[in-house]
Amino acid sequence: MKIGIDKMSFYTPAFYVDMVELAEAREIDPNKFTIGIGQDQMGFAPLSQDAVTMGANAALNLLTPEDIAAIDLVIFASESGIDHSKAGAVYIHRLLGLPKHARAIEFKEACYAATAGLSYAQNHVAAHPDKKALVIGSDIARYGLSTPGEPTQGAGAVAMLVTANPRCLAFNNDNVYMTEDIMDFWRPLYSETAVVQGKYSTEQYVHFFEEMWATYTEKTGLSLADFEALCFHLPYTKMGKKALDTIITTVDEEKQAELLNYYQLSTKYSRQIGNIYTGSLYLGLMSLLEHQTTLTEGSRLGLFSYGSGAVAEFFSATLVEGFANQLYTAAHTEQLAQRKRLSIPEYEELFKATLPTDGSDYSIDEKLDQAPIKLVGMKEHMRLYTAK
After folding, report:
1. Same structural domain for residues 108 and 241?
2. Which intervals hold domain Hydroxymethylglutaryl-coenzyme A synthase C-terminal (predicted)?
3. Which of 159, 269, 333, 357 has the smallest number of CB atoms closer than 10 Å to its CB?
């Protein structure tokens, strides 16, 4: 029995920052942002959008009444959780109107958690092939104004429906993974922003990829020539290429050109949205599938997942017949086109706005955000969500 992703979609808030304008405001050469790290725009989440609402909005495109009736597992993967105790999946379960008799849980391990969620969902569906699992990766990457990490911020979510006999791609059950306790990126409980050692984190990302690739090829006997394309976790779009460069010379020049072309296609959405942590790898996967025209049934795709701290995994999936019919290219293109560009003063003002942390009542102007699902305020320490 094949198990995999039946369909998937993403959501990013209705606001973005132009990276050239941001660079000029910070008196930095724009090429350092657009070429150096490979970012053109940065998705921005207003107070009305948090990890829960973005995750729920990402799933709206996907779910038919038949899907809803069959879902009995919701996994919310995030490092932008809103509560130390209650899983964000519980809110999403209600906002989407999912069946009462379902599990709803939250996973955390930096940017890796959605991959762990997919593995858990796969095992669940293997045991219950008539059921479906909804896996969501949702995050807001936030480092602070005028900080070195500012150009690698972003906001968004991906939603993936895991089923038996999937209509998009099937997992090949060839996963390899590893864990090392390192401090390349973390966020203490008392901090609203992350602590990152940028150069060290990049070095560890590449180190983990090299070790995962060596382990994978030894385990499976496959080589780079056996893959049509590779997708990577993309905290910024140049990051994955640093890993790809370590193995690309193992194939001939024609294959190298093909892999590099597919890599660039996989970065198109990330260039416009920025870093979305747990969802970044799968945003890249969607970007590849929705921009390519030459992949076919049976194409093997490699996926590299990395979460600082650190846990990494490499695995492959195979496209199934009719996969292109499961894509939401037009809806995603329209969503990005309808966003509002924030001026730098507007962005900075919205960035400084915060929710109360003392239990005070708070209302958010609903006119600022027309999303179907959003946060409208707080009351007695509780977040108040609405769904149209």
Report:
1. no
2. 177-250, 266-352
3. 357
